[in-house]
Amino acid sequence: MIVPSMNLQEISKEVLEDARTFGNKLTACGRDFKKIVLHRSHYPVTKTYECKSLKRKNLFVFIFKAFKRSHFNTPFVLAYTVYSRPEGRYAVVPEIKNNRATVYPPHFFKRYRERILKEESLSIEGVIHEYFKNDWGSLGRLVNKDFEAIYYVFEKDNESNKLSFVGINAQGYFFGEKQSHVDIIKTIVPEDMLFKSQLSTFARLKADFIQQNKEAYGVSML
After folding, report:
1. In Å, how far are 56, 76, 213 from 52, measured between CA atoms?
2. Contact at 8 Å (CB) between 78 and 85?
3. Residue 168's pLDDT band (boundaries 50, 70, 90)?
4. CA 157 to chain CA centroid, nearest Å
5. What strands, in cross-sheet order, belong to the sheet with 165-169?
6. Across-strand partners of 93?
7. What's the predicted TM-score (pTM) here?
8. Considering only CA atoms, which of 83, 122, 92, 90 is closest in space to residue 107?
9. pLDDT digits over 78-104, tens only?
10. CA–CA dist 112, 172 (Å, integer)
11. Mean pLDDT across the stretch 106-126?
């Protein structure tokens, strides 16, 4: 079980080890999701499953997504687990293929709530699930001075933060830091908050993201 005294590397190790134990569960979820997709007439289709790891009892949420009927055997699958520290709730996404974990701190979900959801009545667990339910892939790039300048416009109180990368997903542009085998996503900014001059900085990243999704899923997601 994840406890507040664990550092990010220890959390990453535990979450990745847990994620590797869900093979049979994922196979069963995949069979169930296949039936759902084949019986639907409108897409995309999303289904959520929950399961605790046997050894450490960490609760994982698995989100299966199909963008069209032909994806019944090859759905997009995302997994995350949530843990608490004194400052709030964190989410962790294991990336088994790359042996990495992505951590979303409380500040990220605060910004997501106020900038994108604009919904104060939703619980923090609801905010976290809403984010991942709508997180249909992403694309990242190394950060440069132009991206950093935009980050500090929106995060004036966090000018001491270190940045390693900038990225895009279907909900906005995000900024983060790499620490060994962990990526920390610090904040998110929706496109409608950007000025024209700022949008031009993201133009190539957005075009590459659209192309990536068309090749992978047959949809742009934007």
Report:
1. 8, 21, 31
2. no
3. very high
4. 24
5. 45-52, 59-66, 76-85, 88-95, 100-104, 182-189, 172-179, 165-169, 138-142
6. 102
7. 0.93
8. 90
9. 999 999 999 999 999 999 999 999 999
10. 9
11. 96
